[in-house]
Structures are given as structure tokens and as C-alpha cells.
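Protein entry
_____________
===
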Amino acid sequence: MSRKNQGTPVFESNDLPDRQSSAPLLEVNDLRVSFPSENGKVNAVRGVNLRVDSGEVVALVGESGSGKSVTSTAIMGLLDETAQVSGSVKLHGRELLGRSDSYMSKIRGSQVSMIFQDPLSALTPVYTVGTQIVEALKIHTGMSESDAWKRAVELLDLVGIPNPSVRAKAYPHEFSGGMRQRAVIAIGIANNPDLIIADEPTTALDVTIQAQILDVLKTAQHETGAGVIMITHDLGVVAGMADRVAVMYAGRIVEKGRVDDIFFNPRMPYTIGLLGSLPRLDSKKDSALATVEGNPPSLLELPTGCPFAPRCPMAEPECSAGEPELADVEQGARHFSACRRFPEIGAKNLQYTDIFPVPPLKHSEELNLPHEEREEVLRVDGLVKEFPLMKGAVFKRRVGTVHAVDGLSFDVRRGETLALVGESGCGKTTTLLEVLNLAKPQDGTIVVLGKDTADVSRRERRNLRRDVQIVFQDPMASLDPRLPIFDIIAEPLQHNGWKKKDIGPRVEELMALVGLEPSHANRYPRNFSGGQRQRVGIARALALNPKLLVLDEPVSALDVSIQAGVINLLDELRATLGLSYLFVAHDLSVVRHIADRVAVMYLGKIVEIGDVDEVFSAPAHPYTQALLSAIPIPDPEKERTRSRIILEGDLPSPANPPSGCRFRTRCPKFAMLNAEQQESCLSAMPEHVTLGDDHTTACYYPERTNVF
């Protein structure tokens, strides 16, 4: 059947699914979804079978385009009218496919709810948050206005919104990102649904806020007893939340089973590749990451055999003969794999290093030198950057100051990577922009390649710009869609006086250097995958042989398998070209793998800095400890035993930072100090104290602790 009721029609009934039924909470059988397009039919979901029981968390994982979100949207009955849908979706044994929108409207919000990835888009901007919760309650329960408002305040309190009775009357734009996601969860659980679908609920959030939201989700599930479908790219979140996992590829499930089986005994090469491509927060870098070469197949023209065969190192001629079905890995184990060679994988206990070649890390002699003995590439001393806070539509007046960066000091040496980490609003991007501006800062000094930016001439500044380049977060937004790749990479060469006869060979050299096929230089950005577009951005940044590369979240927009290839490339380029990186990232697992040193920022100040292994294995500042404890580790056993430091509240406004230590308002240690000890934290920001050869922290009461 489909949106147009192909096949046997489902007769409309006002009977909602019976919550007392003995049938499973959700049963999805042979679900197929296709969409018409200019080039033909897109087979987005191809025969998905899924079951969710009450109180169970089932995770759907896989690369972008694998069909995860389309599957969840089909369950909710929210697909476009042009979608062709067949199969079966049963809630408490009652068929949902083919039902009218009015019938599904009674289901959505009451028995099935959805938590979307972008909370700002999910909330109506012209209504208060409380009004939107009240609306969900009144539609499905018939509550009175006063009772619904009382319940709305209770729900906001349940999900951890401070002053819920006041905040219920605020609009979505007056909430932070984390608070908006909490409000969306409150709406989702308002009517005690039986099934909650969470579609990337923490992707756009800081790690500390992510930990809070995951904690809220667990509370919500406990309060409602609901089953949960968790759609996510983050396998660390899966390890800590899920009971069972379904791995999707090219529109179908290729492996599913208990979370421990999937993480510790995967039987599908694609699953093994995904797990092997993850940088680990709890381990030092001793090799490059596993990479799944190539890209997922087009859903317009699928190969005749296993869709993963073109990317699979274990593929045999038989793999192209027909697509394998999900089969029992072991009788009664509830572990299934769609791979002809799963018995061999199990018998030989093959790991990702056995299937996917992991190149050794390249090292140069200079990379082995201590930090102090390397040539200085960048030095920042006492950097200050403030912005005026203005008010008024016509006659503007200054009403305050935003203290974006306040007294920042660090250095970057040749062949070294310094990572700046911290929550959104801590000043990381402002720091990058001040360095890239190559001008006299508001206060403090910036010295690039031995030249103070306050004293350089216009010509010297132009020359310096060749030596300092940037790679942006979103590769598609940073590439001109009207230009072929050749022109994009050649542009900096043309503007810096390169001869025409030399530009062509240089572009080919750069494309080969970053792992792109030079013969594809006449293609446009839209013809490349996300990982390939990021490689184009790196090639353009390397065109003029820079000495310092500024990397602003260069892998955050990429799938984990593609991310691994870009991380390996950056490691290799640093070793072979002697590059230095100033690296900004939210993902501390990536930082652990790629950085030599790390600087942890909070409200415009560095609170801890040093060798990445020193800081990560024994962080001393309470904020660093909270950041590291908030990062999920892709290991179910470790996730079950870890204790998290959940920071209360959101980052204070940089326009009105707390007095004394800026972290004290959220510091879990501050609350345990006596009045005399607290006085120190209230009086002034602490100076940095040395804890090791390359490890300092700004805390009055530092205590090195292992958070893993």
C-alpha cells in the first residue's frame, strides 16, 4: 500500500491502537519507500524490518542517505504525498500505513512522538513555549486551560528548565539551543507516548549540553516507559543509550542485534569499518584511522549484488551476483548480518585492522622535538577583543560590552597542532578571526612567523596572508558553485602572480596530494561528495605553500567514515609538509587524535592548556573534567560504568561574566568549598599554575582526575 492506497486498502476507523494489546509496541515489516525524481525513482528505503518493545531503545545508525530519517518519517506518516510506500507499520498490532492524516493526527503526539534535530525549526516562533505545550495537551486530552498550563510548567521542570513558571511564558528565541531542545522533549512526552522517535536530538549541541539532553531523554523514557528509536551518527551515544542497534546502508538494514554484539562482535564489514573509523577519546593515537574508501551507491542505480561490495575489501565475485538477505549469525542470538562472509568473520574474529588497511602514521624528525625546541609559527599574548552591545532601532546607543576574548595567550610551533576547545560562545572563532585579520588587535599582541601584526606594512601583510590559510567547516558553502574545481584551486595562484603554464601542473599536483583524481578537475562542487569537497578546500588552502593552517571545525559536517579519511589526510600533510595547525573543534575525540596540544576555553579565557595526552588523561580544571566526562565513548561496557559530571545551566553571557573565577557559577567543586575557600573564587580570576612539563591550569583548587 502507499499514500495512494496501492494494494489492499486499510478501512478507516476511529479505533486507536490499543495500549493494552499483547502485540509488540512497534512492528515494521518489509517497509519500502520511493520518491519520483527527474532522473527516475529513488528507492530510499528497501525492505526494512524493525521491532521495538516497550521500554526498549533501538538505535538506527549509518551514513547520510542510508534511509534512517525516511524510515522514521514513514512510521510517523509524515512523508510527502508523492512518496510511494508499501509494507506494514503496526503500533500495538494496529496497522498505520494507509491511514488518513486526520487519523494519524490522533496518533502523533499522543501515542507516538518525535524529537527533531533542529529545535528552533520544530518550535513555532510566534507562540510562547508554554502555549505550544498547552496546545499539545489540550488537543489530545481535552484538559482545561488552567490544568494544561499547570502540567506544562511541571513538564518544563521535569526536563530541567530553571524557573519553569516564568520560562513557560518566554518565546523560543529567548531560549538557548539546549533549552529549546529540552522544550521540544517536554512537548514530545506531554501525553505519555508509547513510542518516542529521536532524530539526531543532540547533533547541533555542545558536548556539555548534549550530556544534559541525553540525561533528560533517559528521564523522559523512565517517566513514560516508552520505547525509543534513536537516530544518530554518534556511536558513542548509541553505546550509552541503546539496547539494540540496526545498521543501515543504501536503504536497508545490513546488520542488527544487541548493542554488545554490534560493538564487540560485528559480522558485517560495513559495521566493522564504521567502528574502526572512530577516533577514541580514551586512547592515545598510535595509528591512522580505518577508512571506508568510496561513497555509498546512488539510490537511483543500485548495483545488482551487495550494495557495499564496491567499497568492501572482502568482496568476492559472488558478492555481485545477488543482494544477501539478513541471516542469523547464531541460532537464537537475535544477531543478523547481510553478508555472505559473516561465518568467516566470526570464526577468525576479524577486526577492522584485518579488513581495512590502516596506514602507519608518518613522522618527521621535527615532530619528535619537544615543544620548546621547535620554531615558533604563531604567538598570541594577552589578546583582548570586545564588541559593543547596542540598543535602539533608529538611534542606537551602547548599553554594554561583549567580552568575547579576554587576555588570551598561547603559541603554535612548526609541525604542531594546537586545538582550541570549549562550548559555543567561549571565544574560539573570535580568536581565529583575530589571527586571520593580521592587524593590530584591540589589546595584546599577535606575532605570526616572527612579525608583530601591529607593525607590519600593507605589503608584508599581503605576504603573510600567503602563509596563513583557512579550511572552513562547511565545504559546500566555502566553494563557489559556479566554478569548476580547477578554477577554485587555481584562484589563489592566479591572484598571486603565478604564470599560466605553471598553474595547471600545480593544480594537478594539489589534487593528487589530497587524494583527488586530477582528471576530475573540470567537475563542479555539486558533483563531489562531502568528504571530497572538504579535500578540495584543503587543496585550495595548500596552493601557496602556507606555514600555518587554521581549521574551523573541518570534519564536523562529515560522516564518520568520510571524517576518518580527512583526519588521516591532515595528519599526513602535517608530517610531509611541516605544516602547523590551529584547530577548532567540538568533538574532543577528534582533538585527542589529531592535536599535540590543547587549550580549553571558557568565556574568553583559557582555563587549561598543555600536551593533549597530559590534559586528557588527567585533567585538573573542573570544566575540562566536565567536558571530557560528557563525551560518549563507543564502548557499551565503559558507558555503563562511567559517571558523568553534568553541568547545571547554560554558559553565562559574555556581556556580563561572573566576578572572580568565571566558571564558579557552574562549578561542581565550588559548591563543596567552605566560605573561606569560596572567597578566593569570588575575588579574582585565578592565575595559571604549572602541573607538569607542558600542563597548566587556571584554578585555585586543581585536582588531576581520570574521567574515563
